Amino acid sequence: MPEACWLCERPLGRKVEWHHPVPKSRGGRETVAVHPICHRTLHAQFSNGELARIGADPDALRAQPVIAKFVAWVASKPPDFHAPTARRR
Question: Is residue 37 within 8 Å of residue 70, measured between CB atoms?
Fold first, then answer.
């Protein structure tokens, strides 16, 4: 199992979820390990169509302003940190 989250690059904790960078509904097969909060943030901010276009490139996702802000905020949190996830407006 990977030691770091695919999105935020923090060490993984006890709870790990598996994310399809390209959604299964769009033909994606690969999965990557992410924190639950990172997984929820991705799906709250991007549609499956958006994830199909940019989802396979974590650097491109981290370059998106909303994800860059999230990654900066979560960087100092412990691996199993959990908080409610805000939806896209």
Answer: no
